[in-house]
Amino acid sequence: MYLTWLDSNSWLIEIADKRILLDPWLVDALMFGNSAWFFKSERRIAREIPQNIDLILLSQGLPDHAHPPTLKQLDHDIPVVASPSAAKLVKELGYAEVTALPHGEVFEIPSLLEIWAVQGSPTGPTTLENGYILKDLVDGTSIYYEPHGYHAAAIQKFAPVDVVITPTIDLKLPLVGTVIKGQQGALQVAKWLKPQVILPTAAGGDLTYSGFLLNILKAEGTKESLRSLFDLNDISTQILEPQPWERFEVKLQKLTKAGGEF
Prior knowledge:
Elements: E1 2-5, E2 11-15, E3 18-22, E4 30-31, E5 40-43, E6 55-58, H1 68-73, E7 80-82, H2 84-92, E8 98-100, E9 106-109, E10 113-124, E11 127-136, E12 142-145, E13 163-166, E14 170-173, E15 177-180, H3 183-193, E16 197-200, E17 207-210, H4 213-216, E18 218-220, H5 223-232, E19 238-239, E20 248-249
Parallel strand pairs: 3-6, 6-7, 7-8, 12-13, 13-16, 16-19
Antiparallel strand pairs: 1-2, 1-20, 2-3, 4-5, 5-17, 9-10, 10-11, 11-12, 14-15, 14-18
Helix pairs in contact: 3-5
């Protein structure tokens, strides 16, 4: 298994001999509703779009997960698996092969890979987006991804999961409260899934930020404070901090798995 963090929520996952582009934001600025005054993020240096992509995987329909300028530029013949809201967006953009994956459903590449949609983050009064469990059917390794730290209790049936990609810091807004559940969310999912490795997402990277939102958004937590939480709870999960755009191999111990079945 190889992973490349492409800043923010974007990842290149190499698993089961497939190259999966997860929540890609790769070109132009990131804004919400084209409102640069409210929030704008840009890359410090331009990056080349990864090539030879087998699948695009989208967890949400919001621009920081389904980034319209990026999706317009990617090859529209690449198959897409997405939450229902994100699937609607890519269909409107003209993608040829789109699978909308509701919670509890599975997308399978026979004998190679399973992708299970699980309940993820709320993005509106009636919308719950997706988290994902990816399982390599050849070597049995697995990944869980949820980008805002909203972990449904139902994921416990998949335990143990080798790698968890989730926020590790909290982001809070006045009157709203915690919008990204980092520290306690990471602690909870580590208890439930017993991963060997946890990787942070949804923050940082080789990016610049501007806009009104930065004046009221409050970040809390560090790798060290999360490690302390893990130690207090006898959790041995390794916390890694990948460098943006640097491909690395996730080295896992061979364990006999028991408990949940995919």
